[in-house]
Amino acid sequence: AAWAAQAARPPAAGAPAAAGEAQVQIQFVVDPLMMCHYYFKDYGPGSTKPGSKSGVDLSSEANAYVQAEKLVEDPAAWTWLEERIVSKPDVPSLRKALADPPAQFRDDDTKTAFSMVADALEQGCPGYQKTVFPTESIGVNRLAISARKRLRPSESRLTSTLMKSMDFKPIDAPISVYVVTRTGGRGTWGKGDRGYYTVIGAYGQSPSSLLETGIHEATHVLDAMQPYETESVLQAVRKGVKPDQKKDAETFLHGLITFNAGELVKRFVNHTYVHQGIQAPDHADEYRPYLSTYQYIWVDYLDGKMTRDQISKKLIDEFEAVRKLQAGQQQKKKAS
Question: How many CB atoms lie within 10 A of CB 146?
């Protein structure tokens, strides 16, 4: 009952949108059960012993997660599990759901892994809640609340610009961005009983960069859930590049999603904000060849200087120009 009371769960999906409301709802959520889940999920070789700084040993529960992930490597199984976590109010109801998985997850290894996770949460979450959660939740909640306050005055304009610029069609439920301490680079997304969800880490974030990360991940959800028969800006680029360029095109588009999220925060929330995602060390080298496209061509489009059809063609042209330049540079290196 304590877990259910503390959980900042999103509202049920399906309520009609109010007049003038943005086409998509993006809400930031802090939930103790999800935080406990990621506390164990983030544990791995070289990590600090779980609970060691708070006087409780949670290493056996964290190790159960490690073993469960060794048993089941199928990402779809873990997505289904997390969809149950965001849908259930407590561990007992979660355990009941995990005991009755769909047919594709009924093999012995997957059922054993699900049981190990349920055991770990049932045995470890009370200790986590008493010792770790009170401390970690202060920082996570403070960050999430500050991000919500900054977003609220311009939320409708920001989300409507996101939808219009990408030419996204509305989806059938809100998107909840679950904020945990760390994701270990393994945040996921899916759809639970209350709508779509994605997970981001708070560690090292400012309120504005948390918004950028949340908008970035929400864009991926919107992109993935577009109707097959429609064509967003991203889908138009995918269709317009050559078959052997598909992989590089995804890097190009991921950089565009990253840049756009930061640009929306800068335009509507914090005018002095400096984009964080586009210069993140893990991807900066991949995005660098396309920076001028993002900073000038895409910004012109956001400023209304280009139409939807013009930007799709221009993005394809810019991507192919960069690829041609890179191919020429590689040939010169080989020749020398």
Answer: 15
Whether the pLDDT of residue 150 is over 90: the answer is yes
Least confident of 21-25, 67-71, 101-105, 191-195: 21-25
Q: Which helix (H) or strand (E) holds 197?
A: strand 195-201
Q: Per the structure block, which two tokens stand in for 231?
A: 């064509």
Here the tokens at position 99 are 């005991």
Per-residue pLDDT tens over the stretch 272-285: 999 999 998 888 89
The rounded distance, in Å, linking the Cα atoms of 216 and 262 is 8
Q: Which of 9-18, 113-122, 162-171, 172-181 has the lowest mean pLDDT?
A: 9-18
Strand-pair category, 26-29 with 189-192: unpaired
In this prediction the pTM is: 0.87
Cβ proximity of 217 and 189 under 8 Å = yes
Q: Is residue 82 within 8 Å of residue 131, measured between CB atoms? A: no
Cα distance between residue 31 and residue 86, in whole Å: 9
Q: Count CB-CB contacts under 10 A for residue 2.
A: 11
The residues near 128 (Cβ < 8 Å, ≥ 6 apart) are 36, 39, 51, 56, 58
d(CA 270, CA 205): 15
In whole angstroms, what is the distance from residue 323 CA to residue 328 CA? 9
Mean pLDDT lowest for which of 98-107, 275-284, 296-305?
275-284
CA distances for 64 relative to 60, 186, 330, angstroms: 6, 17, 47
